Amino acid sequence: MTFADDMHADCKKDVAQLRLQLEAASRELEETKNVARNLLDSLKEEQDVLARAKAKDETLLSSIGDGLIAVDKDGVITLVNPSACAMLGVKEEEVIGNKIYDILPVAYENGTPIPREERLIYRAIATRQMVVNDPSQITCFLRKDGTRFPSSITATPILFKDELVGAIESFRDITHEREIDRVKSEFVSLASHQLRTPLSTINWYAEMLVAGDAGVLTDEQKKYVEEIYKGNQRMVELVNALLNVSRLELGTFVIDPEPTDVIAIAKDVVQELEPKIFERKMDMKESYAADVPSMKVDPNLMRIVFQNLVSNAVKYTPPEGHVTLAVESVDGPEGSKRLQITVSDNGFGIPKDAQAKIFTKLYRADNVRIRETDGTGLGLYIVKSILDQTGGGISFVSEENKGTIFTAFLPLEGMRKREGTKALGS
Ligand code: ADP
Cα dist. 72→61, 122, 168, 212, 273 in Å? Predict the structure, then answer.
């Protein structure tokens, strides 16, 4: 074989190899093209899915009757739905990009502006928790024209991979519900008022019968009349409580603060309950701090608070149980001072599933309903309404069959005066 033949053979080998490599490369290219095509296809599909989801979200947002406002974590509005714009009397472009605290102010029903830190949306962002407005403290949104409407509000934080990105406030105008409530309260007020006269008549005559004014009764007759008297007394209590509730709800009750010895009222209430405490052989302890000053409060309202809390503790604790009433002055937030009333007992307690409802009207927990027939389920509602409306508050901790501690407070400055048409009765 000549040198030229060798070369020719080598060249042929190289060409064959090159062809093979070329073929492989072109196959790879084809595959890459396929992958790219598939990627593009799925990207397009995803784009379609996203566009469809966006269209769905937009329709959802615009068809929803509740107002919705989304903000970023600094409170800057990023989205408002048409219902929110209609309720607030604003245009989308007027509010987007502005801080919700500046552009959409809120106030309490009496017109007092609600500070930023107390707004639900601020609290949802600060605590990363969903916050719902307290129905006893109605929040009003201010419209652009200066008018306002009461609203029911929920603020929910938006978390993405555990990172806070903003929050959503949803709200509803509850003017209509408030009006219905008002009419209902007026009706209850009127009906209770009318019921008082015949109840008083029954009371008088039952008292006269027991006293023997119509002749001496046999023991059995006396027993029956006493039952009528007791039943009637319970009805009087219920009617009075209903009257108080309607006055609290209509906001027509007077708050008439005067310098008051709060501890004297507490002692008086315990003394009034003495027969029941004695009958049930209860151990009642009282602890009054020496530094509690005379306070400008409405003595009538103060008495209702003490009466309900102490009588509940006595009523819902089995015989020979322990009840403690403590009145002291303690530190409140931001250097303020408060009057603190603590009523603790080692009684039946409040079951876990009943705890959220304990301050609602007419609610009585099952564990006491089966034991103690007396009660209207209105006392704590009245106490909470009084404290809420006079700048105070109330909370409790309780464990079933272990006991309950109620803690109520009022600012030491006392209650603010309010003109009204009626006083609350105890
Ligand atoms: P009432 O005592 O007339 O039923 P309240 O409004 O005062 O109504 O109390 C509501 C409910 O709260 C009671 O029915 C009871 O279930 C519960 N409750 C209140 N105080 C206590 C307490 N000290 N211990 C246990 N349960 C209590």
Answer: 18, 11, 9, 77, 55
Element (H, E) at 140: strand 139-142
Question: What value, to the nearest 5°, has the Cα angle with vertex 312 and ends 277 and 290?
Answer: 75
> For atom 25 of ligand 1, which residue has the closest CA?
349
| One-letter amino acid for residue 123 of the chain | R
Cβ burial of 80 (10 Å; 0-12, 13-18, 19+) is buried
Atom of ligand 1 nearest to the CA of 406: 23
Task: Read off φ and ψ for residue 162, nearest 5 degrees.
Answer: 70, 5
Q: For 125-172, what is each residue's pLDDT tens digit?
A: 999 999 998 876 789 999 988 899 999 999 999 999 889 999 999 999
Q: Is 312 in the pocket of ligand 1 (CB under 6 A)?
A: yes
Q: Which phi and psi angles does 135 have, rounded to 5°?
A: -60, -20
DSSP code at position 392: -
Both tokens of 69, joined, read 């406002």
For residues 376 and 90, give the distance between their C-alpha atoms in angstroms, rounded to a whole number: 46
Q: SS3 of 340, please?
A: strand
**288 exposure class (CB count in 10 Å sphere: 0-12, 13-18, 19+):** middle
Q: Is the CB of 150 under 6 A from ligand 1?
A: no
**Is 9 buried (19+), middle (13-18) or exposed (0-12) by CB count in 10 A?**
exposed
Residues paired with 324 in a beta bridge: 285, 344
Half-sphere exposure of 194 (CA within 13 A, CB side): 6
Any atom of ligand 1 within 6 Å of the Cβ of 297:
no
Give the pLDDT confidence of 78-119 residue by residue, as tens digits.
Answer: 999 999 999 999 999 999 999 999 999 999 888 889 999 999
